[in-house]
Amino acid sequence: MASQIFTSSPSPRTSKKQEKIKDTYIKPCIKSNCLINTDTFFPFTTTPFWQWTPKINTQLLHFKKNSTLQKIITMNFNDILHTEFQDFNHIYTDASKTSVGVGFTYSTSLTSKQFKLLPEASIFTAETQAIKETLIFRKSTISNNILIISDSLSALLAIEAPNPSNEIIYQIHNIISSTHKVIEFMGVPSYTDIPKNEKVDMLKNEAITATSSTTITTLPYQYLKRCINIHTANMWQTSWDEIPITNKLKSIKKKITKWYT
């Protein structure tokens, strides 16, 4: 009996295939007809966070647009370019989100390019994508000193952060870290009559509907989370709607949204 116990071969185990985190997110999105093609490229940053020190000039953002003459902002802008960035190639970026769609552009003294994103994209995604596409474009150029000019303070602050959680910002970090070029940033107030900044402001709106715009069909994976949250809330609301109105709480609160008191 004992020999049978110790000599009998163990029953074979069926190994369960591990599901990828991405697939876990995608399943409920498919059920809710939220079909978003996500950008799954999420590498580790090539520069340690304690060594990440991007140069971002924010001098102009200290001016209050409501109480400062636009010509003063423009004059200071030109002075900064002349004294600090005279040997740099200046590239302007901007983005727009309207009821029609989402678009962004970058523009240099010689060329410009327009892009459009999926309508689900946020303005932050568009602004950071504009900077990313600018960096990709400038990797193949001769100029070694590049100044990217943007009116999106949130995008610049995200780039400045040493340990980002956003895919696009990660990619921006790695592009900057892997190039020998000098890349710096400058923040400018929007709608301040800076000629070239006003030009990209016009181009960004045209990009949404222009047939010549390059369409980007991927979004950061965080958008899957949003789809799941919406789908879950809809399921919960449907379940709550099926409860009879005779329920005391149901008669008081018909929606599952947060109850502010």
TrEMBL record:
<feature type="domain" description="RNase H type-1">
    <location>
        <begin position="85"/>
        <end position="209"/>
    </location>
</feature>
<dbReference type="GO" id="GO:0003676">
    <property type="term" value="F:nucleic acid binding"/>
</dbReference>
<dbReference type="InterPro" id="IPR002156">
    <property type="entry name" value="RNaseH_domain"/>
</dbReference>
<dbReference type="GO" id="GO:0004523">
    <property type="term" value="F:RNA-DNA hybrid ribonuclease activity"/>
</dbReference>
<dbReference type="InterPro" id="IPR012337">
    <property type="entry name" value="RNaseH-like_sf"/>
</dbReference>
<dbReference type="InterPro" id="IPR036397">
    <property type="entry name" value="RNaseH_sf"/>
</dbReference>
<protein>
    <recommendedName>
        <fullName>RNase H type-1 domain-containing protein</fullName>
    </recommendedName>
</protein>
<feature type="compositionally biased region" description="Polar residues">
    <location>
        <begin position="1"/>
        <end position="13"/>
    </location>
</feature>
<feature type="region of interest" description="Disordered">
    <location>
        <begin position="1"/>
        <end position="20"/>
    </location>
</feature>
